[in-house]
Amino acid sequence: MISGSPKNEAEVVEAAPAKINLALHVTGQRADGYHLLDSIVTFAEDACDRLTFTLAEQDGFSLSGRFGALLSSDAAGQDGNLVLKARDTLRSALEEQGQSAAPVAIMLQKNLPIASGIGGGSADAAATLRGLMRVWNATLPAEALSTIALRLGADVPMCLAGRPLRARGIGEDIETLPAMPALSMVLANPLKGVSTPEIFRRQTQKDNPPVGTPPDGSDIGEWLAFLKTARNDLEPPARAILPDIDFISQMLVESGALFVRMSGSGATCFGLYGDHAAAETAAAKLSRERPDWYFQETKTTV
């Protein structure tokens, strides 16, 4: 059973952390067209959108943050629409059980690049579910909340979990990982979009073997060795569509990254560093070189 906050808070703030696919193998395709995946996923500690929920006389939605204007130029955009869809879907589920779901004003601070392979709207939708459960002081079985999350999108259940995990199927078959080190990384995005459907369309091999067994521990060296045995099967077609992915990956390598890979369907890439100081130094250097692109140092959750 999932319960909201026991105290009646008029305002609740929820983080929507970036979701990073450390490895992603395409292992099949269902008859309905959905691709089957096997992915090792973790989340950023401080690279995130933020959502604020305030009880109000009527529902409202507003945007702020570096990338908020890009959403507002498209009637709140995909990410904003998923926030509102999450609100309406959760409200309907609660009202069916006789629980109240009062009007609420939602403010989305959009700090992460849009459509960039690091969660985006899925992370925002998951944070909306968590935040509204608190502000409405609601109670739902965990299975019911997971069902709502999957209805919102294949990535939403893993974003709702918000901790290191292995995701299979279309993303709904989740196994939390017992141990993973806090990885120091830089997220890098050239702020150019790539079409996820086009990337999957170009995927010629759709029955790849699954990801191997991840380390059962927090040794960074073991994890780096494991990641080097895995892949992101979406990266080659994404690089063919957007050559900037090659360029930004090389920038990460030259900045001292020990390991570089694209996350999800891109175009965000990540570089892993020996410690957070090295990641901070790299992010500052990269930002000076390309101030028009997105670079963010962060640590992953454990």
UniProtKB/TrEMBL annotation:
Q: Which residues bind ATP?
A: P113, I114, A115, S116, G117, I118, G119, G120, G121, S122, A123
Catalytically driven reaction(s): 4-CDP-2-C-methyl-D-erythritol + ATP = 4-CDP-2-C-methyl-D-erythritol 2-phosphate + ADP + H(+)
> Its function?
Catalyzes the phosphorylation of the position 2 hydroxy group of 4-diphosphocytidyl-2C-methyl-D-erythritol.
Q: Which residues form the active site?
A: K19, D155
| NCBIfam families per UniProt | ispE, PRK14608.1
Outline the extent of the GHMP kinase N-terminal domain.
81-162
Q: Which UniProt keywords apply?
A: ATP-binding, Isoprene biosynthesis, Kinase, Nucleotide-binding, Transferase
UniProt-recorded Gene Ontology molecular function terms: 4-(cytidine 5'-diphospho)-2-C-methyl-D-erythritol kinase activity; ATP binding
Q: Where is the GHMP kinase C-terminal domain?
A: 230-288
InterPro entries referenced in this protein's UniProt entry, alphabetically: GHMP_kinase_C_dom (IPR013750), GHMP_kinase_C_sf (IPR036554), GHMP_kinase_N_dom (IPR006204), IspE (IPR004424), Ribosomal_Su5_D2-typ_SF (IPR020568), Ribsml_uS5_D2-typ_fold_subgr (IPR014721)
Q: In which pathway does it act?
A: Isoprenoid biosynthesis; isopentenyl diphosphate biosynthesis via DXP pathway; isopentenyl diphosphate from 1-deoxy-D-xylulose 5-phosphate: step 3/6
- Protein name, please? 4-diphosphocytidyl-2-C-methyl-D-erythritol kinase
- Describe the family membership recorded for this protein in Swiss-Prot or TrEMBL: Belongs to the GHMP kinase family. IspE subfamily.
GO BP annotation list? isopentenyl diphosphate biosynthetic process, methylerythritol 4-phosphate pathway; terpenoid biosynthetic process
Q: Which organism is it from?
A: Rhizobium daejeonense
* E.C. designation(s): 2.7.1.148
PANTHER family named in the record: 4-DIPHOSPHOCYTIDYL-2-C-METHYL-D-ERYTHRITOL KINASE, CHLOROPLASTIC (PTHR43527)
Q: Name one Pfam family in it.
A: GHMP_kinases_N
